[in-house]
Request: fold
Amino acid sequence: MCGIVGYAGYHEAAPFLLAGLQKLEYRGYDSAGIAVFSDKVRTMKSQGRLATLREKVDAVGGIPGTLGIGHTRWATHGAPNDINSHPHTSMSGRITVVHNGIIENYIPLKEELESQGVVFRSETDTEVVAQLFDKLYDGDLVGTLIQVIGRIRGSYALGILCTDYPDTLLAVRKDSPMIIGLGEHENYIASDIPAVLDHTRRYYLLNDNEIAVIKADSVELMDTDRNPIQRDVYTVDYDISAAEKGGYDYFMMKEIKEQPMALRTCIGSRIDNGDIRLDKIRLTEEQIKNIGRIHIVACGSAWHAGIVGKYVIEELTRIPVEVDLASEFRYRRPILSRNDLCITISQSGETADTLAALREAKANDVHVLSIVNAVGSSIARESDDVLYTMAGPEIAVATTKGYSTQLAVLYLLALKFGKIRQTIDQKTAEKLMHAMEILPDQLERLFADEEALKELAKQHAAKDHVFVIGRGIDYGASLESSLKLKEISYVHSEAYAAGELKHGTISLIEEGTLVVAVATQDQLYEKLVSNVKEVKARGAYVVAIVKEDCTDIEGVADQVFYIPKTEDIFTSTLTVVPMQLFAYYTAIERGCDVDKPRNLAKSVTVE
Ligand code: F6R
Reply:
């Protein structure tokens, strides 16, 4: 989704802004722009890729000035064209703004301003902020900002320049992330850490309704009553190379290959001496014993992880689990009780729907435990408890290591809860912990099939439809495999609970249709083989993903990929990997931009 950068210092701002925006490209965008202030504000914008904006800037020999803001826009209000791109400047030219989020009441505000003679150039909600700021401006920069945020409703991270303050960058946020990077005689704003990492590892996290006044040599934080705020400085603790491609063509492949390491960190640090240590969570053993129901709430792949998690948690703890899409949960008046537990799952920790669902649960006095990757993100901060997935920065829009570490944390939770509630005995727990500990090595072995999967992708890249079928946990994993394929290769794909096929969907199977059958559950294996025979009889080309001792499937499927033997409840961690690789190579074959699929954003901070 949209990205913000800003610079206040003594060096030229434009190169920083363009480089910072490049680091945020992974969030998804369809236009970009920068505004730099010297004697006046000069703005340059461009529809499409950042490279086009860079060419425009280079063509005029750069934009001079040491104060500036930049933005990558993911269109919500108005088409992705040059005019609607940010930054937006008020009619008088005094105020220039970049904005992430949505101003919900922009229409009445726009009408009010238009009735006072303000002429708008764009269709965006953001321009309202620039025009309103200018209209209310009384010479007091912070005072005017406080008035503005008193009038606007919605979500926002704002970076603001005012021509009366040639050394000052203003920032404020509500429900949209913003950090303040702290440099040597220069400071920065950004909507995400990678944008400033080449310059500093030290930053402040801005909270909702906090204002930052940023100059080259100072950063002042204050609340909306102008009370100063003292804030701890955070330090980025991962290697800068973690946010670089490191020799791979795409971040997605790098992140697929990082999964063993990510799982080792996530699991290894939590299994200790025959027990599971769940960081410092506030949820007590007494509360865990009394949990009546678990509500898992998430979006997209995180929701898919939740579906697998439901099977695992119910199996090991016998606690009933409901899994909700966050965008549905918040509007369906969910029935929540005080001894329920809400688990929200989010890689970015900023997904607007998941954040709103979390707030809904908290408003009903339900304890919220979140599984999050981005440290210090909004979801992490607002939850009662957080378990970090420790996957390191995930840049590719399509999640891979984010998903597999979410699964790992769900397994750990299920095991811990099962032990506390005595629904599993110590011997079983130890067997399962051992199985978890060897999962990273087992996952690594799957990379040996990369060439075969690349070949498979070549053979089937032209197909328009792919089905992924499975039962039980394998159905959960099929959902994620299918999403990987459709989001990055634009191949229509459906995941189906294999037993449901004959209730309608099997009519879509015809000669040559590609069906991927995931069959790793001992109890359901025979049934899945029957489903494979059903689609084979209708002409499907079947690729099976099975455990390594199920060689009999070779007589039924056209091609087989084996996963190492593990506990049935943990197979999703492994079955998804061949499909990540297949999706990757299918996207390459079809000439797609793997890391930045069309219309998608990494961090979905709007509803
Ligand atoms: C798909 C993908 C998305 C996210 C979803 C939730 O590859 O990445 O479906 O899983 O947008 O995002 P987070 O986990 O950041 O809340």
Q: What stands out?
A: The first strand starts at residue 3 and ends at 8. The pocket of fructose -6-phosphate is lined by residues 299-302, 346-348, 351, 354, 398-399, 483, 487, 604 (CB under 6 Å). The two ends are 12 Å apart (CA to CA). The mean pLDDT is 93.
